[in-house]
Design goal:
Number of strands: 13
Radius of gyration: 19 Å
Oligomer: single chain
Distance between the termini: 63 Å
Shape: globular
Strand order of the largest sheet: 4-5-6-7
Helix content: 10-25%
Strand content: 35-45%
Order of helices and strands: HHEEHEEEEEEEEHEEE
Largest sheet: 4 strands, antiparallel
Length: about 210
Amino acid sequence: MMQARIILMVVAAAMSIASLGGALDGQTLERAAPLNSSGRVMVAGRLTPFLIRHLPVSSFPQLPESVAGALNQRGCMIPQTYEAHGPENVVHASLERAGSSDWAVLCSVEGKVSLLVFFDGGSGQDAAAPVVLASTEETDRLQAQPGSGVLGFNWGIDGASPEQVHEAQSGLAQRPGRVDHDALADAVLEGRTVYRFYAKNVWQALEMPD
């Protein structure tokens, strides 16, 4: 009995490693590891396979205990873009004001992904009720991976310093002055980035060149 259990564990580990490879066929997708979600969606009249990789909250030890606890309580997994080379989609930046210590996280629960923001490390507000900036089904954020017939997750977030925002606005006819604290770069891979900025108790999308 014990030997059979060990064999099963070895097989499960091999399946997990295989699922992290590059181009994946349908048979490999059906053996995806529990941290991954996979299936098929209709694209241009054809059923197309997809694979979305996730990481547990424990993969981000830099998170404050209050934020990590709130994410775990929600059952969050952190979705990773198909271009990820390391843990991503957890951001530490000064989003509320200059010098503040804030966190933004993409949280996926049962196929639905939300962009959450915790001000003051989750201590200055009820950590169980972060700001929800956006929410959608994971399968609404799929995109073809170059060189592969498999769709991958295309939603990525990052911090943007005042200097980065100012540089991104360089193509505007009337370029605004520098903002005084960080923005949140909300991006679609190979697509447009929206810079979300918090000021006067309101989130707004900063103007960017077309």
